[in-house]
Amino acid sequence: MNILVINSGSSSLKFQVINMANEEILAKGLVERIGIEGSRLKFEPADKEKIVIDQDIPSHKEAIELVLKTLVDEKHGILSSLDEITAIGHRVLHGGEKYSESIVVDEDVKKVIRDCFVLGPLHNPANLLGIEACEELMPGKKNVAVFDTAFHQTMDPVNYMYALPYEYYEKYRVRRYGFHGTSHKYVSKRAAEILGKDKPNLIICHLGNGSSLSAVKEGKCIDTSMGLTPLEGLVMGTRCGDIDPAIIPFIGEKENLSYQDIDTMMNKKSGVLGISGVSSDFRDLETAAEEGNERARLALDMFVTRVIKYIGAYMTEFDSIDGICFTAGVGENSIEMRQQIAEGLKIFGVKIDEERNNVRGKDTIVSADDSTIKLLVVPTNEELMIAKDTVELTK
Ligand code: ADP
Asked: How many angstroms separate the CA atoms of 338 and 300, rounded?
């Protein structure tokens, strides 16, 4: 059973074909610059040479058409016919309050994705274009929508409401939704397997360019750090995370900025990039800090401190905790960050094992035997989670 996984962005489209019999990736790739001059397909079949196809790709339909053609190409392809694809799983950013699980796409589902354009203006329209292109190009095959917000829909109002006039929730559904849900779900399931416990209590730290935490109680998300949009919470690569909201009118007035300008500043020019002035990339920052760049060191320290504070706050939402999991680019790979975060949690009796922690990108327990809470590294795999949900819903 082969599943095509599609993550359709506004001008790019990532895909994987996964053989679900052994969870092997048969091919993966990326279409870049859709609708922009210089568009291309980068195609990586598992057992053949990588190729790059430069050609005009004016729309998402043409992008998927080219991907499908390449998948069955005699020389570079990996399938003899498109019949070998059982179903398609789509990453969709926002499912609003409607979906707490993945779902087979029909007209109602498309309407909800459309209704959520206002909540995910960059992603949801592109996600829908990907779905509609697949419906057109592969009629009869089932498309499954896997929402980034779904896993967090089990939160209680006490954690998802903002202390604003209630009417904004009623009129505009202003509330916390949370994102990276597919990653948090995958990691919570994997951690349950590693810990040998059916429904453990976990704090999951998805630390990458975009970062978020979730508190997962007996398999269900009870709290998460991202909010109405992915801007809230931790300090990120280019996003500010939590700030005093009064800063927005203050800076706006001083600098004569529009809401749009401020939104761009908080999303694209802030975070560790804004503080360091060096880079949004954590490896660059670690190098700069080692070379004595004080603002790079400050940015890294602020990032770590915010993670520790959030974990501390989430601890209070449990009677007991089985594990704290690290995932995504920084969480999986930065030995130093994990060490510092563990150090900041010593009041809870958390202890990291230096030798075990000397690992990158591998499922493993990195805490010391006498740590009160286990620390785990769990590489995330959102594509596999999407494919698993797709199999589950289409079998
Ligand atoms: P995205 O949110 O774009 O999916 P990723 O989860 O891929 O992000 O994380 C990217 C971040 O992970 C980058 O800032 C990168 O520097 C960081 N990263 C990757 N490897 C390491 C490493 N060995 N040490 C520190 N940071 C790393």
From this structure: 12
Distance 148 CA to ligand 1 centre (A): 20
CA–CA gap between residue 53 and residue 360 (Å, rounded): 33
pLDDT tens column, 247-288 = 999 999 999 999 999 999 999 999 999 999 999 999 999 999
User: Confidence class of residue 379 from pLDDT cuts 50, 70 and 90?
Assistant: very high
Instruction: Concatenate the DSSP letters of all residues of 233-302 into one string.
Output: SS--SS---S--TTHHHHHHHHHT--HHHHHHHHHHS-HHHHHHSS-S-HHHHHHHHHTT-HHHHHHHHH
Whether ligand 1 lies within 6 angstroms of the CB of 230 is answered as no
Distance CA 23, CA 3 (A): 10
CA dist 369 and 374 (Å) reads: 8
- List C-alpha distances in Å: 307 to 46, 185, 188, 205, 316: 37, 19, 18, 8, 15
* Cα 292 off chain centre by: 32
Our answer to whether residue 106 is catalytic in this structure is no
**Closest atom of ligand 1 to CA, residue 337:** 25
- Among residues 115, 148, 244, 284, the one annotated as catalytic is 148
Collapsing DSSP states into helix, strand and coil, what is residue 44?
Answer: strand
118: which residues sit within 8 A by CB, 6+ positions away? none
Please indicate, yes or no, whether the overall pTM of this predicted structure exceeds 0.90: yes
Domains (ranges, CATH) in the chain?
Answer: 2-147 (3.30.420.40), 197-382 (3.30.420.40)
CA distances to 7, 101, 114 from 107, in Å: 20, 17, 10
Rounded distance, CA 16 to CA 271, Å?
Answer: 31
What's the CA-to-centroid distance between 332 and ligand 1, angstroms? 8
Q: Which of 100, 204, 102, 97 lies closest to 146, judged by CA?
A: 102
Q: How far is the CA of 362 from the centre of ligand 1 (A)?
A: 15
